[in-house]
Each structure stands twice: as structure tokens, then as C-alpha cells.
Design brief:
Number of strands: 9
Shape: globular
Distance between the termini: 104 Å
Order of helices and strands: HHHHHHHHHHEEEEEEEEEH
Strand content: 5-15%
Helix content: 25-40%
Largest sheet: 3 strands, antiparallel
Strand order of the largest sheet: 7-8-9
């Protein structure tokens, strides 16, 4: 009788332990697997080169700002809309008001270059895909920039001039403003300037001020960065460590804390529409307004449907047709190209 009780007790304990183990397997473990981040889509080298083509020929510090800011696509939209709603702010007054905004330092820095900021807003699908790629394939993205620079140099389109200094260290090409206080944003067709034509990013919209119709690079007015220099997010706080494959901010590796790109599960597309950030009517690869001669944005998409990464992959943000603010932009008529002088010291620089 005593033996049978011991056997029953052992059987009960064994059954209880089995039940507990099964309950735990369906509890926290199962729940954590549901919350696990999706594996990022690894983009091919060809896709990465297509992503960096529009910015690879910019000065190093501007490339750094763009790569960092691309991980904050919602803030890019906010900043561009804010700039459009404050067209009268210039110089020190603009810098002071920008400093009050809750944006990432990289986004604040881009307000020095309104046409660049607008380009990232109008081509939001590209922006978010670039941010996704930089967050998940940092070395590949920085390598892609250098590959594209080598191609442009080989094609004879990337050399030192009156606006910028282009130097080569081993296999690394460095681009810096000739005058450290005046930055010129090169205007070029990112699908032609590298020699062999590149298939345009789907829905790409050519923003006036940074798009030049032709295979060469053009420069307009310089952007004086003096008024922004006194803030911690200003021009001289940024750079690229090409050998370390990283963006430098305040002499340290830049770390993005974007929840949009880094933590997609906490981001809802509905949040994007909060605050009337409604882009609507994208062009889906067609030429806006009937197109412009030489624009290659209607080329067949290189990314296959469903494979493009990015927080806003569902938006083919080719760009709405809307009026351009006159701040920091130059017309392409009459041979005037480039980004326009904005808010810097020393007046306009040619």
C-alpha cells in the first residue's frame, strides 16, 4: 500500500512538471516570438548603388547628415513642411527657431539645405529605403558611395573646382567644400552622371535645385553655414569615416535612435498621416506634369515588387506637384542651376 502511494506521488509530480513545461512554452516564449523583429531585407550591391546615386557626389559632411536623417523619414516630412510654413525665417533667426524643434540633429542640419530636405520629402520611399539600408548594411552603403564616386571620377565628372575640393587617399575619394564656410550642393542627374546609365529609383521626382538635366555636374549659389555653426548640429559637427564605414557626429560614431526604421513594429503607417502628412497622388514612375526632357524617372523599376525595404515601402512617393518655396532654390531656366544661397554669412557666393 505504501509503495503504491509512492508510485502515485511520483506519477503526479512527473505529470505536473510536464504540464508546467508545456504552459511555459506557450507563454512568454510564444509571446516573445510574436514580438520578435522581422529580419531586415538585405539589398543587393546594385540596389545599394542605385540608392546612394543621388547623394554620393555630395560633400562628405552632407552625405553624413543625409544618411543619418534618412533613418527619420517622419521627421524629414515634418521639417520640410515646417520650412515651407516659415518662409520668412532666414539666417540667425531661422537657425534659432530650428534649434527649438524636437527633431534629430541630422534633420535640423538639413534645414541649411532646403532643396536637399525637399528632395528627401518628395522622394520619401527612396529616403526610407536609404535609411533602412544604412541601419542594416552600414558598411555596404558607405562602400557603395565610394564605388559611385570612383565611377563618376572615371567618367570625368568628379574633379576639384572652384566650389569643392576632391582628393583621393588610396581608394577613398573625399569631397570637401573649397571654402569651409560656404557649401555648394552639386546638381546632377543621378542616373546619367556616372557614365553608364543607371535605372532610376521607382517614382523618382527631380527636385529643382539639385537636379541638372544632363550627364555633367552643375553648381549654383553656395550655402553659407555661418549662422548654423554655433549650434551642436551645425555643419562642422558632421563627417564620414570611410575606413570605419560610419557617420561621425561630434567626433563619435553616430547612433540612430529612430523607432521608425530601427523598430518597425512600434511604427504604424497611420501615424504617418497624423498631422496631415498626406502625400497622396504619387506618380508611380511617370513623368510629373508631362515630364521634362532628359528625365529618366520613367525607367522600369529596378526593385521587384514586394522586395523594397523601408518603413514607407507601401508609399511610392514619387512626389506631389506643389509650388516650390523660393527659399534656397534656383530656377533651372536660363542656365541657372544649383541650390541657392540660404541663411549663411557673407552673402551669396558664386
Amino acid at each position: 500500500m505504501k509503495l503504491s502511494k509512492q508510485v502515485l506521488t511520483l506519477l503526479f509530480c512527473f505529470s505536473l512538471s510536464q504540464f508546467t513545461a508545456q504552459a511555459e512554452s506557450f507563454g512568454p516564449t510564444g509571446q516573445s516570438s510574436e514580438q520578435q523583429q522581422p529580419a531586415p531585407v538585405q539589398q543587393s550591391l546594385q540596389e545599394l548603388r542605385q540608392l546612394v546615386a543621388p547623394i554620393a557626389l555630395y560633400p562628405d559632411a552632407l552625405v553624413a547628415q543625409i544618411l543619418a536623417a534618412s533613418t527619420y523619414p517622419t521627421e524629414i516630412v515634418e521639417a520640410d513642411r515646417w520650412m515651407q510654413s516659415h518662409p520668412d525665417l532666414k539666417g540667425q533667426e531661422l537657425a534659432t527657431e530650428v534649434d527649438k524643434q524636437p527633431w534629430d540633429p541630422s534633420v535640423k542640419a538639413l534645414t541649411q539645405f532646403p532643396s536637399v530636405l525637399e528632395n528627401m520629402d518628395k522622394n520619401l520611399s527612396w529616403t526610407s529605403s536609404l535609411g533602412d539600408a544604412y541601419a542594416n548594411q552600414q558598411q555596404d552603403v558607405t562602400d557603395a558611395v565610394q564605388v559611385m564616386r570612383q565611377q563618376a571620377h572615371k567618367a570625368g565628372h568628379l574633379n576639384s573646382n572652384e566650389q569643392e575640393k576632391v582628393t583621393t587617399q588610396a581608394n577613398t575619394i573625399i569631397i570637401e567644400p573649397l571654402n569651409p564656410e560656404v557649401v555648394y550642393v552639386p546638381a546632377y542627374d543621378p542616373w546619367l552622371v556616372y557614365g553608364e546609365p543607371i535605372v532610376a529609383y521607382p517614382g523618382w521626382y527631380p527636385v529643382p535645385g539639385i537636379f541638372f538635366d544632363g550627364p555633367a555636374i552643375s553648381f549654383g549659389f553656395g550655402f553659407g553655414v555661418g549662422f548654423f555653426g554655433g549650434f551642436g548640429w551645425g555643419w562642422h559637427h558632421w563627417g564620414c569615416d570611410w575606413h570605419g564605414h560610419r557617420v561621425i557626429y561630434n567626433h563619435n560614431t553616430y547612433i540612430s535612435h529612430s523607432r521608425t526604421i530601427i523598430n518597425r513594429n512600434n511604427f504604424s503607417h497611420n501615424n504617418f498621416n497624423h498631422g496631415n502628412f498626406n502625400h497622396g497622388n504619387a506618380f508611380h514612375g511617370s513623368r510629373p506634369g508631362g515630364g521634362r526632357p532628359g528625365f529618366h524617372g520613367s525607367s522600369a523599376p529596378h526593385f521587384q515588387p514586394g522586395t523594397r525595404s523601408g518603413a514607407f515601402s507601401g508609399f511610392d512617393h514619387g512626389g506631389n506637384v506643389r509650388g516650390f518655396s523660393s527659399r534656397g532654390r534656383s530656377s533651372f531656366g536660363g542656365g541657372s542651376h544649383g541650390g541657392g544661397f540660404h541663411g549663411g554669412s557673407g552673402g551669396r557666393h558664386h
